[in-house]
Amino acid sequence: MRYLHTMLRVRNLDTALKFFCGALDMKEVRRTENEAGRFTLVFLCAPEDEDLVKQSKGRVAPTIELTYNWDEETYGEDRFFGHLAYEVDDIYATCERLSKLGIVINRPPRDGQMAFIRSPDLQSIELLQKGDPLPPQEPWASMKNIGHW
């Protein structure tokens, strides 16, 4: 398992970047604008992690993901923290092992690429398949979401 990022929601992207990049000297390493979803993702790294990020194969890590939703939302303080993300060698094997430990798979890896679980304290944890997505596989392909993440 490899740590990838922590997602934080931000109300104002410019203000957030002024804080993280201006005050904390973090570096922007990737940006995604999604018009259909109406959001922007900006990935930042600490200055000392810049070489690690450049050497990352596939997903850049270790980073902070700033998520800016274009339409105003009221999150409440508990919704600004989004999730931790980890990359795993085999998402199906990982989810099967976690399920056997009694951990609920809130968002099953139907696509062979992404799943979500929650910690005992209800923090969301995203699991992402290393490399290309695995082919859809049962029982995961037909499993429904449970709860939220």
Main attributes of the structure:
alpha+beta; 149 residues
What pattern of helices and strands is seen along the backbone?
Answer: EHEEHEEHEEE
Count of helical stretches: 3
The beta-strand count equals: 8
Cα-to-Cα separation, first versus last residue: 20 Å
Strand order of the largest sheet: 2-3-4-1-5-8-7-6
Q: Could you estimate the helical fraction of the residues in percent?
A: 10-25%
Q: What does the model show?
A:
It is a single chain. The protein is of the alpha+beta class. 18% of the residues lie in helices and 35% in strands. It has 3 helices and 8 strands, in the order E-H-E-E-H-E-E-H-E-E-E. The chain has an 8-stranded mixed sheet, with helices on one face. Strand 6 (105-107) and strand 7 (114-118) form a beta hairpin. It is globular and about 45 Å long.
What is this structure, in a nutshell?
The protein is built from 3 helices and 8 strands.
Layout of strands and helices, then pairs:
Layout: E1 2-9, H1 13-23, E2 27-34, E3 39-45, H2 50-55, E4 63-69, E5 81-88, H3 91-100, E6 105-107, E7 114-118, E8 124-129
Parallel strand pairs: 1-4, 5-8
Antiparallel strand pairs: 1-5, 2-3, 3-4, 6-7, 7-8
